[in-house]
Design brief:
CATH topology: Jelly Rolls
CATH class: Mainly Beta
Number of helices: 6
Shape: globular
Helix content: 10-25%
Strand content: 25-35%
Largest sheet: 6 strands, antiparallel
């Protein structure tokens, strides 16, 4: 074979490999769950096994580390298959706050008025505060309580300068549900296989201004983690709270500029127009 033909062949092989690799790399993080939020019977829909991506997102540096939520987990759950269909927030507040309403500004602000009063066997009374997790820790949900059979509630507020399409990349062990602004966008009864292993990239919509995201995860046994990051463009555009807050009071101080409200002291306070800072 002539030398020129050998070089041509080598170039073709290298180009093909490079193009294939680049195409694969560009595909990482692309949404494979679209068309939400979930509706009707889809609210309990778990995506098919065959659709799992098993993407390695180890290199992503934008994992959420600060969250707001109950100051302890719902314990002795009997496993996520038992608690998954149950509205534990409604159970603990006598219906004053629900899983759905906790993902709205109205429900979020009610946490200043009501603790979560689960039974003594399930963790007892829980106040509300800010907690921090280590994304690399395979047991970052444990938070000093039992390592198995519990549920965690974690909340963030995202301030978006405009309405935008966003990709959420969650990892979890085991069962996970995600609501945004009162709508359910994700339901998955399977663990993702690792703290940085993403099976589903979910295309969601953030409205302009404040967006409340609730991430509920139910643990059965073994590892116990939840993690979440957004696409790079969203990370660059939005501000996520808690930011500098360390407790309930400072968290609400942080998000106060995002909201306009009626006079305080009303259990049924309706939160008015969401404003930008």
């Amino acid at each position: 074979m002539k030398k020129s033909n050998i070089f041509t062949l080598i170039f073709a092989v290298v180009f093909t490999f490079t193009f294939s690799y680049a195409h694969h790399a560009n595909a990482i993080g692309e949404a494979n769950i679209k068309g939400g939020p979930l509706q009707g019977d889809d609210l309990t829909f778990t995506p098919p096994d065959a659709d799992q991506l098993n993407e390695d997102h180890t290199a992503d540096q934008q994992w959420i580390t600060k969250w707001y939520g109950p100051d302890g987990n719902y314990e002795n759950s009997g496993g996520f298959n038992t608690t998954g269909p149950i509205d534990l927030m409604s159970e603990g507040t006598g219906g004053k706050i629900t899983d759905v309403s906790l993902s709205t500004l109205e429900g979020l602000f009610l946490t200043q008025e009501f603790d979560v009063e689960w039974s003594a066997d399930n963790g007892g009374t829980r106040g509300w505060g800010v907690f921090e997790i280590d994304p690399a820790d395979g047991n970052n949900m444990v938070r000093g309580g039992p390592a198995d059979n519990f549920d965690t509630y974690a909340i963030i507020v995202i301030d978006s300068p405009e309405e935008r399409s966003t990709i959420l990349s969650p990892t979890h062990d085991d069962f996970a549900q995600i609501w945004i602004n009162g709508e359910k966008w994700y339901n998955n009864s399977r663990w993702t296989g690792g703290v940085y292993t993403v099976d589903f990239n979910i295309e969601v919509t953030f409205q302009k201004g404040a967006n409340v995201l609730l991430y509920r995860c139910g643990e059965g046994g073994g590892s116990a983690y939840l993690n979440l990051h957004f696409d790079d463009a969203t990370n660059d555009a939005v501000t996520v709270y808690p930011k500098d807050a360390t407790d309930q009071a400072s968290f609400f101080d942080e998000i106060a500029p995002l909201t306009a409200v009626e006079p305080a002291g009303k259990v049924t306070t309706i939160w008015a127009d969401i404003k930008r800072k």
